[in-house]
Design brief:
CATH topology: Four Helix Bundle (Hemerythrin (Met), subunit A)
Mean pLDDT: 94
Order of helices and strands: HHHHHEEH
CATH superfamily: dinb family like domain
Radius of gyration: 16 Å
Helix content: 55-70%
Structural class: mainly alpha
Number of domains: 1
Low-confidence stretches: none
Largest sheet: 2 strands, antiparallel
Number of strands: 2
Shape: globular
Number of helices: 6
């Protein structure tokens, strides 16, 4: 019988395995194209996923030993200030993969009882179980955006 943790670890592992293959032939020029000055390029979306991993690692770690830690971030500022648009694509992909491998290890080592612990995100309380599930849903959404055919490229 599979547990919630086993299912999420399997789902995230499969995503990483599939993305490793998809990103292996990625073209930096295509990934750097911006549909408009206000919209993110595919490189910036990968950067956003890096930021999401950073912040969710903090949430999952801190919620296990703090009472309702509050961890939010301004996604547009993080993408802009990190300069993902100007970072080479293999470095972005490698960092994203490494952070998600770390997240897999953290989730795998977490006692199942800790899934009920909570973290404040934008003033709302969420359980670690919900945050892990939402993280994977968010990840899939943006990976679908990245791999969708770009118009104008």
């Amino acid at each position: 019988m599979h547990s919630f943790k086993d299912d999420k670890i399997a789902a995230l592992s499969t995503i990483l395995e599939n993305q490793r293959k998809l990103f292996s032939n990625a073209d930096d020029e295509i990934y750097a194209w911006k549909p408009s000055p206000e919209k993110w390029s595919k490189k910036e979306i990968i950067g956003h996923l890096i930021d999401s991993a950073y912040n969710n690692i903090q949430r999952i770690i801190r919620a296990q030993y703090e009472t309702d830690p509050s961890i939010s971030y301004d996604q547009n500022q993080w993408v802009r200030l990190n300069g993902y648009q100007y970072t080479d694509l293999p470095s972005l992909v490698n960092l994203w993969l490494l952070l998600n491998e770390r997240l897999l290890m953290i989730i795998g080592r977490m006692p199942a009882d800790n899934l009920a612990k909570t973290c404040l995100v934008d003033g709302k309380d969420f359980s670690l179980e919900w945050l892990i599930e939402d993280y994977i849903r968010h990840l899939e959404h943006h990976l679908n955006q990245i791999h969708a055919k770009s118009e104008g490229v």
